[in-house]
Automatic annotation (TrEMBL), chains A, B:
SUPFAM superfamilies hit by this protein: lambda repressor-like DNA-binding domains, Periplasmic binding protein-like I
Renumbered residue ranges of the record's region Disordered: 1-22
Domain HTH lacI-type: start-end pairs: 28-82
Pfam families, alphabetized: LacI, Peripla_BP_3
PANTHER family in the record: HTH-TYPE TRANSCRIPTIONAL REGULATOR GALS, LACI-RELATED TRANSCRIPTIONAL REPRESSOR
UniProt keyword list: DNA-binding, Transcription, Transcription regulation
One annotated GO molecular function: DNA-binding transcription factor activity
The keyword Plastid appears for this protein: no
Record-given protein name: DNA-binding LacI/PurR family transcriptional regulator
Lineage, opening ranks: Bacteria, Bacillati, Actinomycetota, Actinomycetes, Kitasatosporales
Length: 359, 359
DNA sequence: ATGCCGCGTGGGAGCGGTCCCACGGGGTGA
DNA sequence: TCACCCCGTGGGACCGCTCCCACGCGGCAT
């Protein structure tokens, strides 16, 4: 059960497989193309890679041969020679159910995919399970020779990014671990988004605005809380700590936090929840306490997720530009791959308030 | 814009990249291990692959050397030699927003991932865009030398699976194209699930049970409609065609179909929608018509998706064993890879009725 | 005319594994 | 004692590309 003392190869993966009866459908090789075109291998390689140092005659001959043979270069062989795989791993913690069912993951992933395939790169999806597996991951990724790694949902104490850095594997994170993240990362303007939400509540005349935060060891959660505070200060209000309750980004956590807030401050007239899911937990808690939404208490969430549209009442929420975030991650990673060090920036993308009926 | 006449290589992907400044962190090679252990390369290879024909002395020496050097075999080099990549591509049509935001995709993918990594295989995620891209895909996948392909959301007229079969690439589908799918595939017992739903409605005393179907060129949609019919016949009722309206698996489609049904049969007292999303569209249509759910009209959906839990009232729905389906797909594909032909079966997994408040 | 430069060009030498053939040595049977 | 086996073992020959060096050839300056 416990990991072996030595990092000995795990047998499951390495045991020789029984006679893979590979139906050997061999595709034409670069050699075949060279022969057919009556040129050397070098020339074919040059044509394929778009080198300018090829005569028009040779190039034409090669291109014809390629077309006739239906040749497609073998990426594996190329990778072995170039020490480059044109492959990027997307690492997602398996535990984060949340990520999958929300548009968060899907939006980012399609942005990533678009940005990557446009550059001829492919995406390796890696769901990591337990901590041990995650520990092995760095070596594993190095063995894959992936050109880079994208990581979602990194926690503050996650060491994987550091280990990747040691191994000189270009890495870009979705979100950051702390406020001075050393690695390249892309995130939404969480603070600004929270500010938008709270301003909206204040503009509607609400005066006792509470907030349900995420776990405060997460940067997103802190940033959204900061935004909440800033908006209050902007308006000349003082931040009252008993209007702040901590949740954990789950529905149940939202319910509990809402109950707590109502107990502490029966006079509250608005709530900014740091996620839609927590907001969806807050709604029944409010109902139980006999408060109408938005009549008695206005409510705003964050993420603009599926539940926001289907909850009753439809939830006003802060939207993150997910697909763009994915695109930005891809771009940043490609930069870093092309030139080390150049992609180690933090990119912040603007958020937007989507007004529905809850506030 | 239009595809070139000849399959000439697309430049974007093939242009030589500018001096990849690969920080050459070379990992130890099998050769290094052999030298250190004082044995030949062949012996190291045998140890790694768990061959029994190695003396205990050699094995121990090699294992020590591996541990000391932190050696991890290079998959790329191995692939080149074995003509096997231990990689499987998961092909998902990019257009299917639906897939991503619903637990459908996420459930299946994690099952797939679990089943695959357990066997030491990795997952290449391929989102396909337009038809042209999809056309190129077969060749592309062959060039990747993926060991197999998993496809989600195949339409009846999709030719990609056939082309993969021509190329002798093991393939497994999520769902089937028609009722005699030639390829290996895994699906939920859609008919049975629909039957469960309709039986539940009938058992509750409903007598005019309508249904909102999916697009009937899709096998899932037909299967669910069949189940609806069967349940009615079982109960000795005749299937009335004006109680059947076609939707398209979208919310808006559900709304329209519901409107249509109410117009045709104001007396209906129950609806089985072939997806939760369509059911979520049906709800407002019912409200508009002044019907209470479930008071006047009972409603059941399919998929047990996120919206089912958050809609008002919470939706009774049919759940598919998504993770198991993913696992089954992985298993089937591994079978097919190990022995061609053995994995070309159809696996059907049972569904389950999740009773909430709408029926 | 001779030298020199530079442009294509061919092809050897890897990249890091696997596969398999041939070989040495100890045990067995005649 | 000698032939015969069989078990481990070493290492050459690939897998299909890229990289780069060296070479031939035509054109220009001397």
């Amino acid at each position: 059960m416990s990991p072996a003392e030595q990092p000995q190869p795990r047998s499951t993966a390495d045991v020789r497989r029984p006679t893979l009866n590979a139906v050997d459908v061999r595709r034409p090789t670069l050699n075949a193309v060279a022969a057919r075109a009556g040129v050397g291998r070098g020339t074919v390689s040059r044509v394929i890679n778009g080198s300018p140092k090829v005569s028009d005659r040779s190039r034409a001959a090669v291109e014809r041969a390629i077309a006739e043979l239906g040749y497609v270069p073998d990426r594996v062989a190329r990778s072995l020679a170039t020490r480059r795989t044109d492959t990027v791993a997307l690492v997602v913690p398996d535990a984060e159910n949340r990520l999958f069912s929300e548009p968060y993951f899907s939006g980012i992933i399609r942005g990533v995919s678009a940005g990557l395939t446009g550059a001829g790169m492919q995406l390796l999806l890696v769901l990591t399970g337990d901590a041990w597996e995650r520990d092995r991951l760095a070596g594993y990724l190095a063995a894959q020779r992936v050109d880079g790694v994208l990581m979602m949902a990194v926690h503050g104490d996650d060491t994987l990014p550091d280990r990747l850095e040691e191994l000189a594997v270009p890495t870009v994170l979705a979100g950051r671990r702390g406020d001075r993240e050393g690695l390249g990362h892309v995130r939404a303007d969480n603070r600004g988004g929270a500010r938008l939400a709270v301003r909206h509540l204040l503009a509607a005349g609400r005066r006792s605005v509470a907030t349900i935060t995420g776990p405060l060891d997460m940067d997103v959660a802190r940033a959204r809380l900061d935004g909440y505070r800033e908006a209050l200060r902007e308006a000349g209000l003082t931040v009252e700590e008993d209007l702040v309750a901590q949740g954990d980004f789950t529905e149940e956590g939202g319910r509990a936090a809402m109950g707590e807030l109502l107990r502490r401050r029966p006079d509250l007239d608005a709530v900014f929840a740091a996620s839609d899911v927590m907001a969806s937990g807050a709604v029944p808690a409010l109902r139980t306490a006999g408060r109408r939404v938005p009549g008695d208490v206005a409510l705003i969430g964050f993420d603009d997720s599926v539940v926001a549209r289907h909850i009753d009442p439809p939830l006003t929420s802060v939207r993150q530009p997910l697909e763009e975030m994915g695109r930005a991650m891809a771009a940043l990673l490609l930069e870093e791959i092309a030139q080390r060090g150049s992609g180690k920036r933090g990119v912040v993308l603007p958020t937007e308030l989507v007004v529905r009926e809850s506030a």
